[in-house]
Write a structure and sequence with these properties.
The complex is a heterodimer of chains A (114) and B (114). Chain A is mainly beta and 114 residues long. Chain A has no helices and eleven strands. The chains are: A mainly beta (114), B mainly beta (114).
Chain lengths: 114, 114
């Protein structure tokens, strides 16, 4: 069964460093998402991406964040200058159609900012 | 008032019991309702998907949506120790123009005791 994959599974970085989190969505899916989950808190929406552009972004998704689909398979989240409060699990999700809103999540990347 | 509210538990029941999990919400524009299961430090796994009001059954799982009360439920029959996980409710609006971000509840941590 096709699944969303994410790399790395765990990323440790120093405050102020740039990180890139990578995702390979399910191959025939059209909508892509990033969510994050701070330890013990809700899963929160960050950004959605469709037709090579951002569809919607949350207040969390400020100028330090960017997303890209550099080729036909990868979907990346870049954090330009990491802060301590960026430490969280980051989940990529994808969805196939414009109607039924079934989003499938990857296993997540645990980001630790020191 | 929070957009989606879910009792975080923890909830502990004996094997074989019927489990009832629920969420309330405030946004009457929500049309899609989902339940995800999340094991510790893993990504959310889609369990049930419901559009608008009504019931949906899949094996031991039944999802109910009552839009008039803004209340959704997940029932697990004949619960098994392998059902031990955190259960997240999630919902979204029905805007075909947009990418339909998911809004999650806090998650209920469930333990099934053998």
């Amino acid at each position: 069964e096709p699944e969303v994959t994410q790399t790395p599974s765990h990323q440790v970085t120093q405050m102020g460093q740039e990180v890139i989190l990578r995702c390979v969505p399910i191959s025939n899916h059209l909508y892509f998402y990033w969510y994050r989950q701070i330890l013990g808190q809700k899963v929160e929406f960050l950004v959605s991406f469709y037709n090579n552009e951002i569809s919607e972004k949350s207040e969390i998704f400020d100028d330090q964040f960017s997303v890209e689909r550099p080729d036909g398979s990868n979907f990346t989240l870049k954090i330009r200058s990491t802060k301590l409060e960026d430490s969280a699990m980051y989940f990529c999700a994808s969805r196939r159609t414009s109607g039924r809103n079934t989003q499938y999540f990857g296993p997540g990347t645990r980001l630790t900012v020191l | 008032q929070k957009e989606v509210e879910q009792d975080p538990g923890p909830l502990s029941v004996p094997e074989g019991a019927i489990v009832s999990l629920n969420c309330t919400y405030s946004n009457s524009a929500f049309q899609y309702f989902m339940w995800y299961r999340q094991y510790s430090r893993k990504g959310p796994e889609l369990l049930m998907y419901t559009y608008s009001s009504g019931n949906k059954e899949d094996g031991r799982f039944t999802a109910q949506v009552d839009k008039s009360s803004k209340y959704i439920s997940l029932f697990i029959r004949d619960s098994q120790p392998s059902d031990s996980a955190t259960y997240l409710c999630a919902m979204s609006t029905n805007t075909f123009q947009g990418a339909q971000k998911l809004v999650f509840g806090q998650g209920t941590r469930l333990t099934i005791n053998p």
